[in-house]
Automatic annotation (TrEMBL):
It holds the Pfam family Ribosomal_L10. The keyword Ribosomal protein applies. Belongs to the universal ribosomal protein uL10 family. This is Large ribosomal subunit protein uL10m. The lineage of its organism: Eukaryota, Metazoa, Ecdysozoa, Arthropoda, Hexapoda. The keyword Nucleotidyltransferase does not apply. CDD domains: Ribosomal_L10. It comes from Anopheles stephensi (Indo-Pakistan malaria mosquito). GO terms for cellular component: ribonucleoprotein complex; ribosome. Coiled coil: none annotated. SUPFAM superfamilies: Ribosomal protein L10-like. Keywords: Ribonucleoprotein, Ribosomal protein.
Length: 256
């Protein structure tokens, strides 16, 4: 009886699964269109996505950064220091930094330091705080890439700066600020060929002195000519008198 219960009533049978292949060959590239009713349902429930703009990811990322941007007090301190460099430097050179080894960059810094020129590299956010609402705001587009800045309290160091940069092709001169005036690359190099202010003042003083001397010489020209002519006549008269006295003395001796 127990065997009957176990074998007949309590025995579980697993269903037999048989996989049957579709009668025709399935075309994956061009499948058969669905039934009309099913096609209608699929068309209704098809999701619709708005086509994004070309630069939408960049705009969204920038907006996200602006919303999450927090005022960094350390950047404010560095920006104040950078503005101080700009305000108290007579010579500022802006350089685009290409790929360069740190060893070569250190050699350039040492060579410029010998001429009392400092090399600084600041980020875009720091420079935005440093030059905002100042007379140096026009240089902001130059900081889209990595840019180095050279500061010197003497504008006469421009020749030394150009000589060092000529030996370093990785640093490309883009422009500069000399005595508070923004100069392009060509104007910056042309300024280096000009003499210093002391030499120009000496040349100007020499020109003024020569002009005054010429005026004085022109005013005294007629008087000098008159004096020379009178002097020449006086010498001729004196020679004539001496010749006459000699001839008279010779005649007296002959008579005697």
């Amino acid at each position: 009886m127990s065997n009957f219960v176990v074998n007949g009533l309590l025995q579980s049978r697993n269903p037999l699964l048989t996989f049957r292949r579709f009668r025709g060959k399935i075309n994956i590239q061009r499948p058969r269109p669905p039934h009309y009713e099913r096609a209608r349902v699929l068309e209704i429930i098809k999701p619709y996505y708005k086509k994004p703009e070309f630069n939408a990811p960049c705009i969204e990322a920038e907006q996200t950064l602006k919303s999450k941007r927090v005022d960094n007090p350390y950047e404010t301190i560095i920006a104040r220091e950078a503005r101080n460099w700009f305000e108290h430097s007579q010579l500022v050179a802006l350089l685009h930094v290409n790929s360069i080894r740190q060893e070569d960059m250190f050699k350039v810094q040492v060579a410029l330091h010998r001429h009392n020129v400092s090399v600084k590299v600041y980020g875009k956010s720091i420079m935005r705080k440093a030059v905002a609402d100042t007379r140096f705001e026009a240089i902001m587009p130059l900081f889209e890439a990595k840019t180095a800045i050279l500061f010197s309290p003497e504008a006469a160091k421009i020749k030394q700066v150009l000589s060092v940069l000529k030996k370093t092709p990785q640093l490309v001169l883009m422009g500069g600020i000399v005595e508070g005036k923004l100069l392009s690359k060509n104007e910056f190099t042309a300024y280096a060929t000009m003499p210093d202010l002391t030499t120009v003042r000496a040349q100007f003083a020499a020109v003024l002195d020569s002009a005054g001397g010429k005026i004085v010489s022109d005013l005294q020209c007629h008087q000098s000519q008159l004096v020379n002519m009178l002097d020449a006549y006086a010498k001729i008269d004196s020679r004539t008198e001496e010749t006459g006295s000699v001839s008279d003395a010779a005649g007296e001796k002959v008579d005697s």
